[in-house]
Amino acid sequence: MKWNKIFILAGIVVIVALVTVAAVAPVFENNPYLGKYLPLVKDITLGLDLQGGVHVVLEAKDTPEVKVTPDTMKQLMAVIQRRVDQFGVAEPVIQQQGRDRLIVEIAGRIDPEEAVRTMVKTAYLEFKTMDGKTVVTGADLKDAIESKDPTSGQIKVDLTFNAAGAKKFAEATAANVGKPIAIILDGQVLQTPVVQEPIPNGKAQITGYQSLEEAHNIAILLRSGALPVKVEVAEKRGIGPALGADSLEKSKHAGLVGVLAILIFMVMYYRLPGLVADFALLIYALIVLAIYVGLHVTMTLPGIAAFLLSMGIAVDANVIIFERLKEELRTGKSLRSAIDAGFKRAFTAIFDANATTLIAAVVLYFFGTGPIRGFAITLGIGIVASMFTAITVTRWLLHLVAASGLVRNAKAYGA
Amino acid sequence: MHFIKLRKIWYAISIAVILPGLISLMLQGLNLGIDFTGGNLLEVRFAEPVPVEKVRQVVAAQGLEISRGIQKSGTTDYIIRTRHLTQDESDKLIAALSELGKNTVLRNESVGPTIGRELTTKAILALLIASVLMVIYITIRFEFKQGIAAIIALLHDTLVVTGIFSLFRIEVDSAFVAALLTIIGYSINDTIVIFDRIRENMLNRKKGESLEDVVNASLWQTLTRSINTVLTVVFVLVALYFLGGSTIRNFVLAMLIGVVSGAYSSICNASPLWVDFKLWEKRAKAKEARA
Predict the structure, then answer these.
(1) Of A239, A273, A290, which marks where a domain is finished?
(2) Average pLDDT over chain A, rounded to whole?
(3) Hey, are the CB atoms on A376 and B178 less than 8 Å from each other?
């Protein structure tokens, strides 16, 4: 027995156990400093399939009036950005795909249907006189704010025109005193108030809303401006928060059972090295979690599956090594040289096997979108990290156990 | 047991598994989900149980044709598949369903027809590119013939999985493509570990030892590893299948079939095929020498 080695070994076990608890369990929740960063898992962004949300692909369409150009796409993106920002969710994703598509992803507690509706409303506002002349349009607007009159309880949207709009509006109202002017949104007449007197200050008002929320939605649309081009929803994937939470809970449960089965199997079949491998697997899981947090990987449902499968890959590397170790021990080598030879011989197999799996993950990354891409990323990280832990951590631990003299019997190593 | 001497049996088993699926693929194709065909999938959960008949009436009243029936999962959840809906149509349908009772929309997915077509091309392209890259890698690290043998084994696994999915009319979606690629990765992983052993044993080959015997010995030396690795992955997949929720069940099922098929094809197809290739080459050379 070499007590210094045993001491190191015990130290490692304690440290890993502490890190694991700190990373996963909410023990420092009430600590003002540590609570900000721990547990590590809470910093992993959940994909919209796990927390609810919506993934939309919008396709811009040519019309006789407006053609789809890089310029209109840029305007469209700006309008959609303004609308999406109004939902107040963290980090919405809006990106152009190809010539005429926008991908919008919003995760969080929103109503997916409502979100899509708000996104694709044309919001073309016009003020028209009796003889059909357009006085001002939404493009002349500076601001639109909803409010509720505290005394009368009337809900309204206050409009403010920009300088040019105010001038046009003043001229039109002066010329139409005593006549109605129609307020039209997306071709629908909202109101036809009669002009009492000229309005020089560029202010107008739309009334008659049932709720403040309704007025709020209209105000958003008016503020963000009209869509510059016709837009269709090419793809929509809305996941309600209920299903997201359900999926997260279920896959956590399934994952735990699956991983426990692996851990037990390893100890039963490989005995001492199996125990070492289980420990290395724990370290592997911690490394992978840290990479997820560090690289801001979004965890999706397929991503969880990939994480669990990468556990399988990590176990596999250990299995290859232990099978080699057994063979080397049978040829009558000493424990130390058998461990070294086992690792050396196992390395090419592990390397080549993982390289080919990595090819599949990379191809998947370039061809997939959304959750599939998440799957590819988690699988890729898993492959690289598993290779690293198997050939460094497991080897080092195994040497340490062998050198400590705690277990000398070659049978315990599977011989 | 001599794996290589029994190889005709292994080939026969593979063909027996693949053939029904292949015939089904040709006759009835795959049960493609909305990811490929385009369409709308609405999953709602009612607060109180609602009879299927009522749900069907409401959908029909919207003038919508129901594709593939209304699927009931649990007592209060319904999956309603229709053609691709505009936002307006979708809103109306949800509003009409609300008249049956209080409900929440679990998911509402809509895929336009162009997106579906793109996914199909992308999926095939991804599988092809991955296969070519793997052959190139194996040719560099091993040899071309092993690359070809490995790819045939991959084709085997792909056919087994798609065949079974076609035969049992299990719905195929974009996650299925991801499953296929992962299966390919796993299967090739298995094959490479065996090829690595063969590469090593060929270097230490004793005089007079036949190719068949070297490969057979390599297969036996790696057998425990092959079985143990599949077992650990199967543990996880079985847990995910029964406990992981309905959303990923088909994905997990594809993986489960593929991983088992991958282990089989690595042992019983890839290495024996390589032996056959080698023997053909030897015979062809001998013929040339005689001529």
Answers:
(1) A239
(2) 84
(3) yes
Given A206, A239, A272, the domain boundary residue is A239
Please say whether the beta carbons of B55 and B70 come within 8 A.
yes
Same domain? A259 vs A392: yes
- Under an 8 A CB cutoff, do A238 and B43 touch? no
Q: How confident is the model at residue B192 (pLDDT cuts 50, 70, 90)?
A: very high
Residue A93 and residue A198 in one domain: yes
Mutate to test the interface with A, among B43, B247, B251 (most CBs of A within 10 A): B247
**Confidence bin at A215 (pLDDT 50/70/90):** confident
Q: How far is B238 from chain A (nearest CA, A)?
A: 8
In DSSP terms, B103 is beta-bridged to B46
Question: How far away is chain B from the Cα of A360, in angstroms, using its nearest Cα?
Answer: 6
Nearest to B243 among A253, A309, A354 (CB): A253
CA A108, CA A110: separation in Å to the nearest integer?
6
Cβ contacts from A onto B, under 8 A: 217
- Residue A249 belongs to what domain range? 3-46+243-413
Q: In this structure, what CATH number is given to the domain that contains residue A217? A: 3.30.1360.200
Task: Provide the domain count of chain A.
Answer: 2
Is residue A186 within 8 angstroms of chain B, CB to CB?
no
Pairing of strands A93-97, A101-107: antiparallel
The CATH number for A379's domain is: 1.20.1640.10
Q: Is the pLDDT of residue B260 over 70?
A: yes
Query: What confidence score (pLDDT) does residue B104 get?
Result: 86
- By CB atoms closer than 10 A (0-12, 13-18, 19+), residue A7 is exposed
Q: Do A257 and B243 touch (CB under 8 A)?
A: yes
Q: What are the boundaries of each domain within chain B?
A: 7-32+115-290, 39-111
Q: Which of A309, A330, A354 to mutate to test the interface with B (most CBs of B within 10 A)?
A: A309
Cβ proximity of B55 and B97 under 8 Å: yes
Q: Helix axis angle, A370-388 relative to A301-330, nearest 10°?
A: 20
On whether both A37 and A185 belong to a single domain, the answer is no
CB-count burial class (<10 Å; 0-12, 13-18, 19+) for B114: middle
Collect all residues of chain B within an 8 Å Cβ-Cβ radius of residue A357. 185-186, 188-189
CATH of B39-111 given 2.40.50.140, 3.90.1150.200, 3.30.70.3400, 3.40.190.10: 3.30.70.3400
Same domain, A234 and A120: yes
**Residue B243 and residue A250: Cβ atoms within 8 Å?**
yes
Looking up tokens 């990479």, which residue turns up? A291
CB contacts, 8 Å: B218 with chain A: none
CA-nearest residue of chain A to B174? A372
Q: In CATH, what number does B7-32+115-290 get?
A: 1.20.1640.10
Q: Which residues of B touch A58 (CB under 8 A)?
A: none
DSSP annotation of B244 reads: S
Q: How confident is the model at residue B67 (pLDDT cuts 50, 70, 90)?
A: low
In this predicted structure, what is the pLDDT of residue B238? 92
Predicted local confidence at residue A134, as pLDDT: 85
State CA B202 to chain mean position distance. Answer: 33
